[in-house]
Structure prediction request, 89 residues.
Amino acid sequence: MARPIVHKPIFLYTYCTNMEKILKHPAIVTGVIVVITLFLGLQIPKVQLDNNNLRFLPERHEAKIIAMLDIAYTHIRHGDFLLYNKTAI
Prediction:
């Protein structure tokens, strides 16, 4: 009995031949990886983390109002500024 002929899909064949060409030059592959790693490593000092999620909320969102009131209460408690009513003056 004859074995059935199995055809590889064309994209898989192209992928395999390209990978074989690339893997024949391990020094170039290693060099490219080192260059990419160095470039990304040099960007680390420029990273700035900002975990203030309130900036993404709308102005009248309940959580934002409560957070702003909490900040104001903290300042009042520590005596950082004085609140007054302009109409009473």
Summary: Helices lie at 10-23, 26-42, 62-78. The chain is about 55% helix and 0% strand. The chain has a mean pLDDT of 77.
